[in-house]
Specification:
Order of helices and strands: EEEHEHEHEHHHHEHHEHH
Radius of gyration: 17 Å
Strand order of the largest sheet: 1-2-4-3-5-6-7-8
Strand content: 15-25%
Shape: globular
Number of strands: 8
Helix content: 40-55%
Length: 272
């Protein structure tokens, strides 16, 4: 594997990266391997990737970080928008001196990875999208109300868990607003053109069953939206459909994720 960093800033490092009005907790294993940047679920932390990182091993350069107000160290912000999340990718890469990287995103992070790969075709080695970035119109007024109600109901205990880093330092309303924005960005007319425009290798690892807040087969209906994507863009394929559900996929099916990473990297080498 060749190093895709154009800077000598590739030593092992952990610290805070300032961006906008906040700072993000970043961990970089360093080394000469292809940089892999891991993009967390909407309210998750970098610790979720530990099995994937261990399975891939030291031949890769692993960069993880906690988004704004997530984890134990990343600071609060006045801006928790999706565009801020995309800017944060650039801020972390710049701080670590990385020019080209392979992005691996789970859930919300998969949508961030798709947008970043679309906007940066010369900088993206490829992308692995883990049970996220499905173009489907799942958000309507009733769903929006369900989301707001769900986060209000969880609001009483979330502050109790904040010192552990297991819940974000965001209000229930801020979390609901972020989730609703994700629903709007996931509409076929919004996300479909982004995916259709991607020119780098993209591999999906798709879970089974439900996710937080979904009912019945809602999540499977959402995943079915990938059929139009894979038929319309030859750069995008489903690498695996796994048994684990949305919340357990990084814990139970991490080997499928690592295989998809290796495949995307090999395809990048083949096109250069």
């Amino acid at each position: 594997m060749t190093n895709s960093s154009t800077s000598p800033t590739n030593s092992k490092w952990a610290g805070m990266v300032p961006v906008d009005d906040t700072a993000l907790a970043v961990t970089d294993t360093g080394g000469p391997g292809i940089p892999v940047v891991y993009l967390n679920g909407q309210f998750a932390t970098q610790g979720y990737w530990r099995r994937v990182i261990a399975e891939l091993g030291t031949g890769w350069r692993h960069i993880t970080y906690d988004e704004r107000a997530r984890g134990r160290k990343s600071k609060r912000s006045a801006d928790y928008s999706f565009e801020a999340a995309v800017r944060d990718v650039d801020a972390v890469l710049a701080a670590r001196g990385v020019d080209r990287a392979l992005l691996v995103g789970w859930s919300y992070g998969a949508v961030v990875a798709a947008h970043w790969a679309d906007r940066n075709p010369d900088r993206a080695v490829g992308a692995v999208l883990v049970d996220g970035a499905f173009p489907y119109d799942w958000l309507d007024e009733a769903m929006e109300q369900r989301i707001r109600k769900l986060f209000r109901r969880m609001g009483w205990f979330m502050p109790l868990l904040r010192p552990t880093g297991l819940t974000p330092r965001m209000t229930a309303e801020q979390q609901a607003t972020s989730n609703i924005e994700l629903g709007r960005l996931s509409r076929e007319r919004e996300l479909g053109p982004v995916l259709n425009n991607i020119t780098v290798p993209v591999r999906y690892v798709v879970a089974s069953g439900t996710s937080l807040g979904s009912r019945g087969d809602e999540q499977e209906q959402i995943r079915a939206g990938l059929d139009r994507v894979t038929s319309g863009n030859p750069n995008i394929q489903i690498h695996a459909k796994v048994a684990g559900n949305h919340g357990a996929i990084l814990r139970k099916d991490y080997r499928a994720v690592t295989e998809a990473v290796r495949e995307a990297a090999a395809l990048d080498r083949g096109r250069r």
